[in-house]
Amino acid sequence: MQDTLEESRVQVRTRILDWLAGQQQAMQDLLQKVVDIDSGSRDEAGVTAVAATLRERLVAAGVAVELVPVPGYGVLLQAQVPGPTEGAPILLMGHMDTVYPAGTVARRPFRVEDGRAYGPGVADMKSGLVMNAFVAEAFARCGGLTAPLRLFFSCDEEIGSPATREHIMAAARGARAVFNAEPGRVSGNLVTSRKGSMAIEFEVQGVAAHAGINHAAGASAIGALAHKILALDALTDVAAGITTNVGVVQGGIVPNMVAPHAKAELDVRYTAETDPDELFERVRAIVEAESLPRTQGRVTGMRRTLPMKPTPETLLALYQRGAQSLGFSVEGEFTGGAADSGLTASVGAPTLCGTGPVGGHPHTEREYCELSTLVPRAQAVALAVLDHP
């Protein structure tokens, strides 16, 4: 009986790998479809269109798909692959939103050059969505699941998952494993831990005055902001894994007026060893300090993404064994980028990130995906699902 079961597993394994091996062009075609849809965060129509395109492929393969409306952001895509429905599930995750504004696709649509695909979101992370969809389809067509396999594609990851974080944590709570298809590193490696992030918006009020006639009567909000930027920059502690960056500033009305108002946006990155509440209070103290007489600052908004705790060694080793059998090797890497994998790891779900196809230069016009990695990375995830104890 044991020999029969083992033979059956080998046959399923072969069917899944062989089926995926024949899907290179189909994967590329689906990738082109979803890349050529603008789906920036808060673009409800665009995100929903991406979800509908993926749903069409999944439903045709017999995968049950539910699109859950998220007002202001689009939809969540949740799917259940045919097979076991009871027990702790394995979760394949991704996000459908990108950082690019509407109109980007018209300026630089999907294109292929020297084996690389280019286009908005092609690596981060529409290629990962396509890969996960084909892994799900492989199991729907070939069977072999011993645990529930689910897809969860969110719609607001690029802005810190403000509307979906509770959904993500609920979906991951109690999962046997989570594979998050953010792009594989340029090296081909996976991501086994990440920094957390805070996006903090703040403003400074000053006192308007004529810059030539009555300069002393004014209190420059821009001048106060400049002092705050230097103080915030000084919070960077590379050894502790903390970085700060004021990346957006606005202020003033005209050059000959002492600026009555200014505002800025601060990006903070930190590791799992950092107390984020204490760090935020340090930021708040700088923002609220009277940097110049008669000026006042206040925090107006904050979004936080949790750091990803290290992947259990057993989960990394599981993926590595499958990859090795396919002819490639990978290691785990730490990255300063934040992702929804921080949320899944925070609820105790063993999480492996960066399982998507290899790509580079995310969030830039040079963003690319190595098309030759679509199939082997899909096969590696499929083997990790198939071999998970």
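^ that was protein a. below is b, sequence first then the tokens
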Amino acid sequence: MRKTLRQAGRATGHLALAAAMAFGLWLFITVLIITAVGTLAVVGAWLLPETVLIIRRIAGAKRTLTASWTGQKIPEAYQPLTGTVRARIRTVVRDPGTFTDLRWMVAYWFYGALLALALPLWPVGLVVDGVWGGLLRRNPVVLPLIVRIADLEADWSTALLKPSPKAQLAARVEELAATRADAISAHGAELRRIERDLHDGAQANLVALSMRIGLAKRAYDRDPETARKLLDEAQAQAETALTELRQVVRGIHPPILSDRGLVGAVRALAASSGLRVSVEVERLEEDGLRAPAAVEAAAYFVVAEALTNAAKYSGSPVASVQLARLKRGLRVRVADEGKGGADEKDGSGLLGMRRRVAALDGTVEVTSPVGGPTVIDVTLPCVW
């Protein structure tokens, strides 16, 4: 009975907030009328995009309220309102999200008052369910109706606020265009980095190696001891150049991924990070299946970057890495118990990590409140 009372109370609170929002929308009719008159009179056309922005915020608040009740987020898909007044008006008129929100608003003027059906059930429920459920130990029958009314209100809001397939497609196209631009930018930066590493590292060492060998050839006949010394230096220079080339190759695609796979490569990273890192693996070593090379490389660089950040900035000697095989993807989670406060704008590498993951249509969630902990959760889609 106590559980039923708590559920009914929570449902009533949800319906009360819904009714308050519906009442506010009735008052909002005045703004709609002013906007319509101003738009028809042309001189007030600038009010149209501003009013639509307010409607978007109201619809967003309703999505949040509904998601808090159902536990499922309602997506939103709007075209950005930018540019001149004429361009913004054109966007508002053509955006399917505008008509979705207006349809919901008109319907919500009526079904938003479902609280009126729930309130009369309380006195009846307290009496009937108090006897039926409290004394006779039977399942309550009246108070659960309040929960069903709240579920009905949430179901209607979800159905009405869900973006149309056309709007979702448009938003998806914009998202892919943005991630493609980021991928191209990241690719260009990576090429410049490789070129710089080759020019400043391996190429410089190879030039020095060639010069030393040339000097050794000239000095070989008249001063064998000097020639031998120059050849020793040339050998050391060759080893340095080889090391530089290995580092460049490792930056493109770590050979350890091909040799040991993602799990082995991550464990090697953990062992060499300077932190006490625990590595947990879920279903990745089953059936010998491996993610595509690009996905493994992205996951490897995420772990490497996250552990480097933890060692530099967190102040914690302990970190954890979790690798999990999902039904249609790979999840990477890196956490530390440090001071938190990670910011993508301070050059910590989080922006590069996000771009690398976005290029594969993945997602990055960073949770780092001041005082810690810092958790980086990455999901990379792939087919196993």
